[in-house]
Each structure stands twice: as structure tokens, then as C-alpha cells.
Amino acid sequence: MFRRGKKENRSRGMALNLLLCAGSIIFFFGGAELIARIWYTPQKYEYTGMFEYDREKVFGLKKNATGLYWGGAYTTNSYGFRGKEIPLEKPANTVRVLVVGDSVSFGHGVNDDQIFSYILEQSLNEYLVEQESAIAAEVINTSVPGNSPFQEYHDMKRGLAFSPDIIVLQITLNDIIEPFARWIFRDMGMEEGDLEIISHDYVLGIHNISNLDHILRQRSALYLFLKDIAARIRFKDPTGANIAQKAAQKENFNAALLVLEPENPEVIEEWENALSWIRHMTALAREQDIPFVILATPFDFQLTLEKKFAYPQQKLREFSEEEDSYFVDLLDILWLLLVEQTDKEKTANQIIAEWRQDGSRLLQDFWEVFFLDYDHLSAAGHELVASVLQPVILNALHLGAE
User: Fold this and answer.
1) Pick the residue with more confidence: 55 or 235?
2) 73 forms bridges with which residues in the sheet?
3) Which end of the chain is more exposed for a tag (fewer CB within 10 A), N or C?
4) Where are the domains of the chain?
5) What is the Cα–Cα distance from 44 to 182, expressed in whole angstroms?
6) Quick check: 2 pLDDT over 50?
7) Kind and range of the H or E element at 304?
């Protein structure tokens, strides 16, 4: 009896000590949180635009949404893909093309029925009907503006649930080096803490925004305070006055570096990161015996340079060969069209050299037929891409005419 009472007293004492300890911790952190709220104000993110937070790939498109994006009317389905609703299970006698990419393949500035994924589906089905085939085609567009290979890897991985027969990855220069990653977070209303400082690393998949981090940013001033202190230590700026400037310098990459300074150590590092994610994609496709196509789309200044400066396209071509993937170089196709429309007796390099000397608008006018700006396709550009992809897809799926 005496021993039992002693044990009970000891247990009560231990429980009381644990309770006091827990109370002290709660009191300390509660007080610290109240003090931190004098200088920091947590705010719940309101996703009013087309983007929303994605715990796996940082951001994605809102589901079942409609609106305008740079003047183009867009619709997303229940999976957050641009375009019509599609069943998860693939219908019988159907081939599916899965498109992953950035704002170029999303269709920046054009309507739903003007993007190459829509046109490609129509043209594939017209061809199959002409061939009296019992097969139908569906093209699923998972592309999201701002995507890098990190996001595209996750988009493809999720897209495999739709049983695609072939995958098309569209990639352009700023997918490798993202110079202005902060716009994505501004559009999402996410500028608290140090998001603006390492947004470049978030978008490229170098650092991850954990779901806990995402929640704490919105609810805890103490957490924001600790993140602020960490940023000051990281940038060696005790006052915090120069953090924004130093962060801007970190993000001030230029896609032109890929062409003008291919041996720049920072460029090499960015390529290694991007290709590592694309290699994950080709490995997944290979595991499931799915043909993989890399579509490289250019920046405007590349059209005005000699072919020997097309380093990014050369690197992606070599990578495609190594990975036993198909490769489509839109820049090379544009040069061929330029020769065909200008002077078939000359090479693209000769036409470019003459353009430099005469100062005409030849190349600008040619570019503006197929592009809205420095890299986004016009309606005519989307038609061109669809026409180029169709024979590649038919060949890869062995659906071409005998």
C-alpha cells in the first residue's frame, strides 16, 4: 500500500512537471508570437488569378477555371489542364498524346481553339479518318506558364495516369535559366518572408516549399521573423536593407547567356539541374515503353544569329540522342522556311548576314508571323508546330500511311 502511494505521488509529480514544462513552452512561444506580430503580419494567401499553390510542384493552374491570359480566352478542366474535360480512363481504340511544357505550349495570348495541342488533335483525327482507321486521337495539354523541367516532371508523372501513348515535352530557353521567377509568386499573392529571395530556386526545383512552410508563412509572425533573420544571415546583411537588391542580382540571369556564354559556370550548373529533371522524365517514359519527343522552341534573337550559335538546341539534340528520344527543333524549321520564302539559292546564314548589312525588317516581319513576342507562338505559329509534330507522332506510333 505504501509503495503504491509512493508510485502514485511520483507519477503525479512527473505529470505536473511535464504540464509545467509544456505550459512554459506554450507561454514562451505564445509571447514570442505576440511580440513578433508588432513587426510582422501573417496574411492568408488569396489566389485570385489563374495560379494556385501546389504542395508538390509549387504552383499549378486552378481547376475548372475560365478567364483571359494575355488576351487569350482559356478554360481549365477538373484536372487543371487547359482544354475540355477528359475521362481518366482512356477510351478503347484511342491514342493519347500528353503535352507538357510552359507558357509557349499552354498558349500564351491565344484562345483554347488556337493552341497547337487543340489543332494537333483535330489534324490527327482528320488524318486517321482519311486513312479509314478505327483509331481516334486525344491530346492532353498539361502545360503551365512559368513551368521549368521541375514542374514538367511532376506534370508528366501525374499525366501517366491518363495512359498516354506518346509524350511531348516543349522546352524553351528560360526553362533552363529562369530570369524572372518572382512574377509567378506575385501572381499567386505569395511575397511574404523570403519567397522573393529564392523564388528562382523554388521554380527550378533546387529548393522546395514544404507544405508546413507554406502554412506557417500564413499563420505565424514568429516564423516570418525567423525566416527574415535567416535571410539576413544568408545574404550577410544584418540590417536587411540590401537583401532585395542582392536577391534581384541572384535572379538576374539572362536567357541569352545560354547562347553567348555556354561555358559560363552558372550556365553549366543550370543545364545540369534542368537536364537532371528531363532525364527523370525520359526514364519514366522508357520504363513504360512510351515514345518521348522533345520540342525545342526558340527566342527571337536566335533567328538573327548564325546556326553555330544555336548551342541550346545542339545540347538538347545531343541529349535526345543519348536518351533515344525524338527531337524537333523549331528554330531549324524556321530557318528552312526563311530560305524557302526569301531566296532558295541562299543559306539561312547568308540571308542573316545580308540582313545585318541592309538593316531591313526582313527577320522581324518573318518572326512576327509566327510569334506574338520574343518566344510565344501566334495562332499561325501554333498551326506550324502542330503540322511539324503530326508526322513525328504518327511515325513514333506507327500510324503513318504505308
Assistant:
1) 55
2) 68
3) C
4) 70-178+256-396
5) 18
6) no
7) none
116 Rama class: left (phi>0) / alpha (psi -120 to 50) / beta:
alpha
Residue 234 has pLDDT above 90, yes or no: no
Task: Please report the DSSP string for 57-115 in residue order.
Answer: TEEEEPTT-EEEETTEEEEB-TTS-BSS---SSPPTTEEEEEEE-SHHHHTTTS-GGGS
- In the sheet with 166-171, reading across from the earlier edge strand, the strands are 136-141, 94-100, 166-171, 292-296, 326-329
For a pLDDT cut of 90, what percent of the chain falls above it?
66
Which of the pair, 228 or 126, is modelled with greater confidence?
126
**How far apart are alpha carbons 340 and 236 in whole angstroms?**
56
Instruction: From residue 50, give the alpha-carbon distance in Å to each of 102, 150, 170, 197.
Output: 14, 20, 21, 23
Task: Pick the closest to residue 203 from 260, 144, 115, 261 (CA basis).
Answer: 144
Residue 188 sits at the vertex; the CA angle it makes with 187 and 194, to the nearest 5 degrees, is 100
Q: Which of 217, 227, 182 is nearest to 202 (CA)?
A: 182
Model confidence pLDDT, tens digit, residues 163-194: 999 999 999 999 998 767 778 887 887 764 45
205 close to 273: Cβ distance less than 8 angstroms? yes
402/27: higher pLDDT: 27
Residue 141: is its pLDDT beyond 70? yes
- Give yes or no for residue 402 having a pLDDT over 60: no
- Report whether 97 contacts 165 (CB < 8 A): yes
Structure confidence at residue 31 (pLDDT): 79
> Is residue 222 predicted with pLDDT exceeding 60?
yes
CA atoms within 13 A on the CB side of 300: 15
- What is the secondary structure of 235-302 as a DSSP string? TT-TT-TTHHHHHHHHH---TTHHHH-TT-HHHHHHHHHHHHHHHHHHHHHHHTT--EEEEE---GGG
Give domain 70-178+256-396's CATH architecture. Answer: 3-Layer(aba) Sandwich (3.40)
pLDDT band at residue 246 under the 50/70/90 scheme? low
- Distance from C-alpha of 189 to C-alpha of 175, rounded to nearest angstrom: 22
What's phi and psi for 308, nearest 5 deg? -65, -15
The pTM (predicted TM-score) of the whole model is 0.88
Alpha carbon of residue 97 to chain centroid: 18
Name the residue with cell 529548393. 207
